[in-house]
Design goal:
mainly alpha; globular
């Protein structure tokens, strides 16, 4: 919705800064649930994959890759919804590979996060564990991104003012979401995650098809 009234760069900076704040709050709130030994290597692999993703932008067609990834995510989501758990390997090496690959996709193309969410869902993580694991995973890349924004001079006075304005409703949304999470059972939470992943992937697919 912000894209309807603001320039794309301002939207990107605003969303990433506010998202980083929410990631920090989730980590503070649920730090006891974080499986650090399991998710830290994956997050490091993602940080290593991020520069490769940016470099790949100069070689591949971003639109074609986004369409391919969106189709893949929808297919994996359908498989997960049908409880085809065996389709998602659980080995440590596969986890590192997924981390590296999605790190590159997120950094270079702005898509790929749902693949990590599906991978963690396939590990049969409980709702709170999945939530804090994703927050930890994305926060590492976000910190590097936000530092880059500062070096590039993206934090103008107008954008800082906008950030201050949107932070309050974002914090309100975080609080409401936390309350709802406490009331949800595992089945409803995981189905909700799948619905969000599928809808976001369909939106990406439609956007790329319509713009091509």
């Amino acid at each position: 919705m912000l894209l309807l009234v603001l320039e794309p760069l301002t939207v990107i900076v605003t969303v990433n800064v506010v998202s980083s704040l929410i990631f920090v709050l989730i980590l503070v709130q649920s730090r006891q649930e974080l499986p650090t030994r399991k998710i830290a290597p994956i997050a490091i692999a993602a940080a290593l994959g991020a520069p490769i993703g940016v470099l790949a932008l100069t070689i591949v067609d971003p639109s074609l890759v986004r369409i391919s990834i969106a189709v893949l995510v929808i297919a994996l989501s359908a498989a997960t919804a049908l409880n085809f758990q065996t389709m998602m390997p659980k080995s440590r090496l596969f986890g590192l590979t997924i981390g590296f690959g999605t790190g590159g996709l997120v950094a270079g193309l702005g898509i790929g996060g749902p693949i990590m969410a599906l991978f963690l869902l396939g590990q049969k993580m409980r709702g709170p564990v999945l939530r804090v694991s994703l927050a930890f995973y994305f926060l590492g890349m976000s910190i590097i991104t936000l530092l880059g924004y500062g070096i590039a001079g993206f934090y103008t006075s107008e954008r800082i003012t906008l950030l201050l304005l949107v932070t309050v409703p974002a914090l309100g949304g975080f609080w409401v979401g936390s309350m709802l999470l406490q009331q949800m059972n595992e089945v409803i939470f995981k189905r909700g995650v799948l619905v969000v992943i599928i809808l976001s992937s369909i939106m990406v697919l439609l956007r790329e098809i319509l713009s091509s």
